[in-house]
Specification:
Blueprint lengths: L4 H22 L15 H28 L4 H6 L4 H22 L1
Helix pairs in contact: 1-2, 1-4, 2-4
Length: 106
Amino acid sequence: MQRNRVLWLVIGGILFFALISLAGEVAPPEVPAPRQALAISWYNVLVSVIYGLIGIFLLLIGYYIYELVTPFSVKKELLEDQNIALGVVIAAFILGMAIIIASAIL
């Protein structure tokens, strides 16, 4: 378990920040809606799910681009060398990407 601590840190960061990108889709509206607009329609649920999946897909693309740009093997640094600093940097990168994607989708 000690060996995979950094990997779980990165995976937890990815899941947490992916949920942040979805949070904009399920956030309550700022202005109260009329009573009939509060009814849940399947169209709105489907659109929210599609936008959430697009956000997660864009987040993964951003991570893979980050991995291609770095001059070293991110996987080797995280798994074999247990580089916690790199895990924190990747988590911050994913947080930034999630915020940008969430605001772009909204």
